[in-house]
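hi! just following up on the protien thing from before. the input was this:
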Amino acid sequence: MTVATAVGLIQLGIFPNLACSANPEHLLQLQTGNECRNCDLSGADLTGLDLRGADLMGANLREATLTYANLMSANLTAADLQNAILIETNLFSANLSYANLSGTNLLDAILVSANITGTDFTGAVLQGISGIEVRSQGLE
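and the predicted 3d structure came back as:
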């Protein structure tokens, strides 16, 4: 599929909720293969998508909207999620090691069994999250 076709499908609503500044080829790659290492998905609206087990290692998800998305067991190692919206997002068993979640809204997100080794939560909204003890991690 060509980039022009992918962009056309996104604009026609074949892939709903994907209109954004992200690279159209990368959006298509994620939609069709559930992996997009080092991709530019910045600003993407991925609301409610089932991305269980997705490989997004090193992906640029700055300012992306992942509200209600299912990222259970997803690989987000070293991903840039700065200022992203992850309200009520399922991150159960996700690998967030060395990811940048600074300024991210994680209101009511599920982080049970998530790997947060080296993850940057500076300025993140952490109210209602489940799975990590905010105070014991020094994440207030």
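Residues 43 and 114 are 24 Å apart (CA to CA).
The helical segments are 3-12, 24-33.
cheers
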